[in-house]
Design goal:
disordered N terminus, Arc Repressor Mutant, subunit A, six-stranded antiparallel β-sheet, alpha+beta
């Protein structure tokens, strides 16, 4: 083991020290009896919920597949995801942004989300593959633990922020990722303590990014999520084309008036505003790849007028396409 690996190992095992470790070990026994235990497996186009046995208080799994589960969905557990491999567009509540290798995102209960991989991941002959480490844990787990452990106050604040989704950034990133990678080799109490270390490390960063701004999670979103799935997938598959209000309303099987009301209520944004956000995010990815000129990227992102593209780009990103490219150098 190298010195760097040694340091990471020490960070993972020593950064989280509780004054009352016996209380934690006792709590492990309690939660085996009293907490609900679910594990969500994302296979094909459906969500499968697996009830865990009495020796687990949370679930962890490593997902390796051609592309990530691409349905807009939600569940009652917290979700902490580390993207080892994979790129695409991330939807969290009213947030739209790109995800890539190394991303760490914590989501609160019933916060709708989707990781939609870039188109080339879906090609039959694609050599691309995705890999992620995913933790799910029930809110009862931390609700019962946190009040009795004052050292966990930063974690309580982090979990409160996660109701709108949190992207973990800053100095804790490297030890956090190593802690995730060690989870498959751990069992029982060791894995539970690693969960606490992971949450503690994530809570110590002062540069974390809250993702969704006005979106509020809702346990009753199942039917709405199916409708939003159809809407999002249609928008993503026609980014380079004009989409009329009547056209997208028909996809949702609604009148234009009802659609506008539904969309604003569920996303906190108008259809036009969110569509422009998706298109500008797509344009940002193309600018990062640097293989096309700005005029071509504007057309590929659904903007037939370059001036309109530039004004929307500035409104959404706070900068011009040229300044955006310069910032990458």
């Amino acid at each position: 083991m190298t010195t760097a690996q040694n340091n990471i190992e020490k960070t993972c095992t020593s950064t989280f020290i509780l004054a009352n470790s016996n209380a934690i070990l006792a709590y492990l026994t309690i939660i085996r009896v009293h907490s609900l235990k679910y594990h969500y497996m994302y296979l094909s186009k459906r969500v499968y919920k697996e009830v865990l046995g009495p020796n687990h208080s949370f679930s962890f799994n490593t997902e390796e597949q051609p592309y990530f589960y691409d349905r807009y969905h939600h569940h009652p557990e917290y979700e902490f995801t580390f993207i080892e491999r994979g790129r695409g567009m991330r939807f969290v509540g009213d947030h739209i942004g790109h995800f890539e290798e190394g991303d760490l995102v914590l989501l609160g209960p019933n916060l709708s989300h989707m990781w939609k991989c870039d188109p080339h991941y879906y090609q039959n002959n694609s050599q691309k593959a995705c890999k992620s480490y995913v933790i799910h844990f029930p809110k009862q787990l931390m609700q019962n633990l946190l009040p009795s452990v004052p050292e966990m106050e930063p974690v309580r604040i982090l979990l409160e922020q996660s109701k709108k989704g949190v992207k973990i950034e800053g100095s804790p990133e490297t030890p956090l990722k190593e802690c995730f990678r060690q989870l498959p080799e751990q069992n029982g109490g060791e894995r539970f303590l690693s969960l606490l270390r992971i949450l503690h490390l994530a809570a110590t960063s002062n540069t974390n990014q809250v993702l969704s701004q006005s979106y509020i999670s809702d346990e009753r979103l199942e039917k709405s999520s199916e409708r939003l799935n159809a809407i999002y997938n249609y928008m993503l598959s026609t980014l380079d084309k004009k989409i009329s209000l009547s056209e997208i309303a028909a996809i949702a099987n609604m009148s234009p008036t009802a659609f506008c009301r539904f969309f604003k209520q569920k996303t906190g944004k108008s259809f036009t505003h969110l569509l422009n956000e998706i298109r500008i995010n797509h344009a940002c990815r193309l600018l990062i790849e640097g293989q096309e000129k700005v005029a071509q990227i504007a057309l590929a992102s659904g903007f037939t007028n370059l001036s309109h593209f530039n004004s929307q780009f500035r409104a959404i990103t706070g900068t011009t396409p040229k300044q955006f490219v310069e910032s990458l150098k």
